[in-house]
Amino acid sequence: MTNLPTPETPDVELVCLAKAGELDAFEALTNRYEQRVYGLAMRMLRQEQDAEDVTQQTFLSVLENLEGFRGESSFSTWVLRIASHAALKIIRKRKGLNTVSLEEATEPSDDFNSIPHPEFIADWRQSPAHLVERNEVRRLLDDALTRLDEKHRLVFLLRDVEGLSVRETADALDLNEGNVKVRLLRARLQLREDLTRVLGDPARQLVRSPHHHE
Amino acid sequence: MKCEELLTMLNEYVDGTVDPAVCEEFEKHLAGCNPCQVVVDNIRQTITLYKDGQPYAMPVKFREQMHDALRKKWKEKFPKK
Q1: In chain A, which ranges are continuous DSSP H helix?
Q2: A-contacting residues of B 40-59, CB under 8 Å?
Q3: Are A48 and B74 a contacting pair at CB < 8 A?
Q4: Which domains does chain B have, with CATH numbers?
Q5: Which of A38, A204, B6, B12 is most buried (CB neighbours < 10 A)?
Q6: Is A198 within 8 Å of chain B by CB?
């Protein structure tokens, strides 16, 4: 007897059923993650057609490779990993480059000594709760994301938007944890800088004093 | 702790994974450094904005097409079911 998947059925159980050929289980997994994959792809690529391609490719790849998924990572990390690589492939293609791994793209700047310092420091005029309600804010957020290098953008999206841990983000992108941490810090600082220039209250701008605080 | 040192531990502080001893130093610095305080606030607000921002909804038509394509592929893979 087959129990139909419910929203409470854990991923691991659905994965087992899907491996045994239960279409319902596979569809339940797809339903569970398709919006997240599409959202990640849209934020990476900002183009509907490309985001759709990434989403479809991701789930076709999940279907193809399900037997090979041994559960070393969680299913969600595995799916986001496939989606991330598919999105990067499109970005690299747009740039006219051959696919290179994220690890190869590691630059010497991936260390803490070259972290840019905050420049525009001011309290925001409105709270995030008010800001998310405003339609123009999404554009502002997406514009700021686009200005990030894709390797920083992807780390930020996986860690801070998708809620993966540093370890999971590293696994998904074939990076070491140290690289993830530096990239995340750069991404957060750059986004903070960009957003504060628009959302910050110029009347309350703070200037760092030249001496170092102890 | 100097502002520069604080910067290198910003992630751990914001994520609540910083070592308790370091956390204490971090907070001591924050209490006396308004710019660093505001930077920490800004970073938290930045993360919240992205996390709670309006999601992108998948177009319904695309979703149907994708599910059709997946079902077709599934039947090739598991012809008996």
Answers
A1: 11-19, 23-45, 48-65, 75-94, 128-131, 135-146, 150-156, 166-173, 177-199
A2: 41-43, 45-59
A3: no
A4: 3-77 (1.10.10)
A5: A38
A6: no
A168-180: pLDDT as tens digits: 999 999 999 999 9
For chain A, the distance separating the N- and C-terminal CA atoms, rounded to the nearest angstrom, is 68
Residue A93: count other Cβ atoms within 10 Å of its Cβ.
Answer: 12
- Residue-wise pLDDT tens digits, A85-132: 999 999 998 888 655 555 545 555 567 777 888 999 999 999 998 898
DSSP string over A38-90? HHHHHHHH--HHHHHHHHHHHHHHHHHHGGG--SSS-HHHHHHHHHHHHHHHH
pLDDT tens per residue across span B35-59: 999 999 999 999 999 999 888 999 9
What are the structure tokens assigned to B42, written together? 């800004």
Nearest CB to A132; choose among B32, B49, B56: B49
Note whether A36 and A162 are within 8 A (CB). yes
Q: Yes or no: say if A206 and A122 are a contact pair by the CB < 8 Å rule.
A: yes
- pTM across the whole model: 0.90
Beta carbons of A23 and B53 less than 8 Å apart: no
Domains of chain A, with CATH numbers?
A: 11-94 (1.10.1740.10), 112-204 (1.10.10.10)
Structure tokens at A70: 């041994």
